[in-house]
Specification:
36% strand, 10 helices, alpha+beta
Length: 642
């Protein structure tokens, strides 16, 4: 009956979208003596559910400011709420100086503002924010506020949920949660690492339940760690007994939005009009032919929605979970993930292809709570049961049947079926880059070269986004950034096949001239240049693994193949090349070979990493560290000449 409960700490964690350990830098995960910059001294939540469904939540929050580094951020509190379903009042707010003096927040320093619309016309919301600006905040100060959140409209009829996750990298000296609710209201509760939880009858037809939590041992955040939902202490409470029950309620809410209207049928027919049934030849099983025909129709519909429905997030009223109707989406040509999914379902249905919504987390969570609390689901994609196939048309660069890397090996709630399923496991062949590079070294050491790369799977999706600006005024900047990334100076040109044509594989070509990387005519030595190629292996080599992980982390499954032909000038002689390397342990295989013929050096490198899933256990880090020591030495190997 309210929005997802958010920790008032507002710990905003920017998880970089990475492929995995291939892009890990140095971390301080082993520095257990580090001190936090701030801490929660006291966080008290009293929540009451009334018989009419109204919910009132009183929050008291005291924060300790320990460092000058966070004075600016700690000097204000940002408290979001949905203005259509709830109201928020600030009852009291003040700063406590290091000397113990209370300085009240002036009424003029408490403002209600609209949701940040910095994304322009791509984001609309009726979420508002109470902004509290605290006076005279210095290291050693404390900030305090007390608020009242009144939720008067449930997200779904009869649905109450609350969610607290407790991050180990937040010092919490005392959290207390009390929930008062009608005796006849059945609650489903799941907790981890939390004290309390006994129900108490308090009279007047009400019950009460209380929980407490402390975290006095600060543990720094680790790179690539999975989301808090997957491992952290938590309190989850729901009035729905199962994810299947939520799925049923969700389907009831959206059924009218995905109807096949005459407008939907007309558009589906137009999109697929050029696709003809496959003739039943003797060698073709009729069922296979029918499937191929339907697949072609589904592909055409998916491509049309991906290219023609602009992504615009509209979270108004119950828009956080309910899509607009298919007709309005067609008329407006925009919508968010729910709208994309709703239109896909209706268009596919118009051609006799059954599909379902599939709720998923598009962030860093890989588990599903026992009881429905909305999170960690924050995205919806489309599932076709007949082919066990997932589609995400909001990922406009994803070819039909492909999913972005952050949606691989994720649990989904397939709402039409009321079941939890999972997106495909990672496969090295579905995250692959293959690059060929040819370089000619001039007498003065300058290098002229060209490169060609093919991309497959999630690597292709990422590359389509990366190269979207090729052929525009952005191209020059892309070239300079790519060269600078590998400490090259020079110039070049990039071109690609169409990043928007999802039916054709993405390929890139480049031509470049690099300034001399070492002294010529010699004697001297040089590592293998990257040039204007993607440089996937060089990127991996530039990121040293952390010393230690203590929590599950996101890890990569991928394949990178790179081949180089380097022609040296006639006025020098290549005297030595690196030795070949072969490594094959724990699902990590790496081969590099070096050949010298007629003063030309050929280098072939192949890395394949196949994980059992998208998440690795902390102890698996050592396997990558063992490989990295072998790999980095090979990548630093030099070609000697005189």
């Amino acid at each position: 009956m309210k929005a997802i409960v958010q920790s008032a700490v507002a710990v905003l964690v920017a998880f970089t979208a990475l492929f995995g350990l291939a892009y890990v830098g140095v971390t301080s995960a082993n520095n257990s003596d580090l001190e936090p910059l701030s801490a929660i001294e006291r966080y008290i939540v009293n929540e009451t559910i009334y018989p009419d469904g109204k919910v009132i939540e009183i929050n008291e929050f005291t924060k300790i400011v320990k460092s000058q580094l966070v004075v600016d951020s700690a000097s204000s509190a940002d408290l979001p709420f949905n203005s259509t379903t709830a109201s928020l009042e600030v009852l009291e707010a003040y700063t406590i100086t290091p000397q113990g003096k209370k300085i009240p927040v002036q009424a003029s320093a408490i403002r209600t503002v609209e949701d940040d619309n910095s994304q322009g016309a791509t984001f609309f919301s009726d979420q508002k924010h109470k902004i509290i600006v605290f006076p005279n905040v210095t290291p050693g100060s404390k900030t305090y506020y007390k608020t009242k959140l009144t939720t008067f409209k449930p997200l779904l009829p009869g649905y109450f949920y609350t969610k607290f996750n407790f991050a180990p990298y937040v010092e919490n000296q005392g959290f207390e949660y009390t929930l008062t609710y009608p005796e006849d209201l059945k609650l489903y509760i799941d907790t981890k690492g939390i004290s309390g939880g006994d129900e108490e009858v308090i009279g007047n037809g009400n019950k009460r339940i209380q929980f407490t939590y402390k975290n006095l041992k600060f543990a720094p955040k680790e790179q690539l760690e999975v989301g808090l939902d997957d491992y952290a202490p938590h309190i989850y409470i729901s009035t729905f007994p199962s994810q299947a029950a939520f799925a049923k309620a969700y389907e009831g809410r959206i059924k009218d939005m995905v109807r096949v209207t005459p407008q939907v049928q007309k558009l589906a027919d137009e999109i697929t009009k050029g696709i003809k049934p496959i003739k039943n030849e003797d060698s073709k099983d009729p069922k296979v032919a029918e499937k191929e025909f339907k697949q072609q129709q589904a592909r055409a519909i998916y491509n049309w929605v991906s290219r023609n429905i602009r992504y615009v997030a509209i979270y108004l009223d119950d828009g956080s979970i309910t899509p607009h109707d298919a007709n309005s989406i067609i008329d407006n040509r925009y919508g968010d993930c729910k709208d994309h999914n709703a239109l896909l379902i209706s268009l596919l249905s118009a051609k006799g292809i059954s599909a379902s919504s599939a709720l998923i987390n598009s962030g860093t969570s890989y588990t599903v709570p026992k009881y429905p609390i909305i999170g960690p689901f924050n995205h919806v994609i489309t599932y076709i049961p007949a082919w066990d196939l997932y589609l995400d048309s909001t990922a406009e660069m994803a070819p039909y049947g492909s999913l972005p890397d952050d949606e691989i090996d994720k649990p989904t709630l397939v709402t039409a079926l009321g079941v939890i399923k999972r997106t495909p496991k990672p496969n090295k062949d579905l995250n692959k880059t293959v690059t060929g590079i040819s370089m000619t070294i001039q007498k003065d050491g300058a290098i002229k070269g060209s490169a060609h790369t093919g991309y497959f799977g999630s690597a292709e999706i990422a590359a389509r986004y990366k190269y979207e600006g090729v052929g525009t005024t952005m191209s020059e900047k892309m070239v300079s950034n790519q060269l600078a990334k590998f400490r090259h100076t020079g110039e070049g040109k990039l071109k690609t096949t169409s990043v928007y044509d999802l039916d054709k594989p993405l390929e890139t070509d480049s031509q470049f001239t690099l300034d001399a990387m070492s002294n010529f005519p010699g004697p001297g030595a040089m590592t293998v240049p990257v040039g204007l190629a993607p440089g996937e292996l060089a990127s991996i080599a530039n990121d040293r693994p952390p010393e230690k992980f203590t929590r599950p982390y996101r890890c990569a499954t991928r394949m990178v193949s790179e081949g180089y032909v380097i022609e040296f000038p006639k006025n020098v002689k290549v005297t030595r090349i690196p030795s070949p390397v072969k490594y094959d342990k724990a699902g990590i295989r790496y081969n590099s070979d070096y050949y010298l013929k007629d003063n030309d050096v050929t280098v072939v490198r192949l890395l394949t990493v196949q994980r059992s899933g998208a998440v690795c256990k902390p102890e698996e880090l050592q396997k990558w560290k063992d490989f990295y020591q072998v790999f980095i030495k090979d990548m630093r190997g030099q070609i000697f000449y005189e």
